[in-house]
Specification:
The chain is an alpha+beta fold and about 250 residues long. It contains four helices and ten strands. The longest helix is centred in the N-terminal third of the chain and has 12 residues. The protein is globular.
């Protein structure tokens, strides 16, 4: 894959959300963006910082009259949905879905116009900088995105090139602290996972329910597969089958 990295720098007063980051230098946000096209995208953003700053960002995100997606002179007209997935004194996790984008342009919609479908978008906000890393199958049209960003940013925003190179380092931990809730009900007994790094994921003893046909998320190995992220559902074993010793899952 190829990686395209760049920063957009904001002057004070150019964007109400970025103003909160400028006013609170310890506030940091990391986000993943998906299903990016010319007129829609979703984002999950994890913010860490002082409570006052988190409350300010949350208010702006949930306020339908505040439009901050556009990086061009014209505001984006769009259907927006925001929800707070996690809230504490020093952290917020906010989900956003934006669709039917018209008029103005965001980084996502511009990128969705020129870059291959399925590209992965990561971003970090800190102080006056919104840093972007885009991972893509091909950089054939990345020059068109470069030109569009450089030529169309609204007043108060400036584009700063990072790099264009082979993607060799992920280095992003937006979802590092997000844990799935425990599954309730008599579906499938799940093992305790003692290691999920490296090539193997180790399991402790577990019994299978009678006549189990669980796969994927509810299989005895769940999604704790090898480090490369592959996850294969495994059909149920006989009723008396159990892991009596530590075993390993091989890719």
């Amino acid at each position: 894959m190829r990686e395209f990295a760049f920063d957009i720098v904001y002057e004070t007063g150019a964007d109400p959300v970025m103003d909160v980051f400028i006013e609170h230098p310890t506030l940091v946000a990391e986000a993943l963006h998906g299903c990016v096209t010319e007129d829609r995208f979703w984002r999950i953003e994890r913010l860490i910082g002082p409570t006052a700053a988190l409350d300010a960002v949350e208010r702006l995100r949930l306020d339908e009259t505040v439009r901050t997606a556009s990086v061009t002179e014209t505001d984006c007209s769009a259907t927006r949905y925001h929800d707070v997935l996690e809230r504490s004194d020093d952290e917020r996790v906010i989900y956003s879905h934006v669709e039917n984008v018209e008029d103005g342009e965001s980084v996502q919609t511009l990128a969705g116009r020129y870059l291959p479908h399925g590209s992965l978008y990561c971003s970090t906000r800190r102080e006056n900088r919104h840093c972007w890393r885009i991972f893509m199958k091909s950089d054939e049209k990345v020059g068109l995105l470069y030109d569009a960003l450089g030529a169309n940013l609204r007043e108060g925003l400036s584009f700063h090139m990072g790099h264009l190179c082979d993607a060799e380092r992920w280095g992003h931990d937006s979802l590092g602290s997000i844990a799935l809730p425990r599954i309730s009900g008599p579906r499938c007994a799940r093992p305790s996972i003692t290691a999920t790094t490296g090539r193997h994921a180790r399991l402790r003893s577990t019994n299978w329910p009678r006549n189990s046909t669980c796969r994927g998320r509810h299989s005895p190995i769940g999604c704790a597969g090898p480090k490369n992220g592959s996850c294969r559902g495994i059909s149920a074993r006989p009723d008396n089958y159990s892991y009596s010793q530590v075993s390993s899952i091989r890719s």
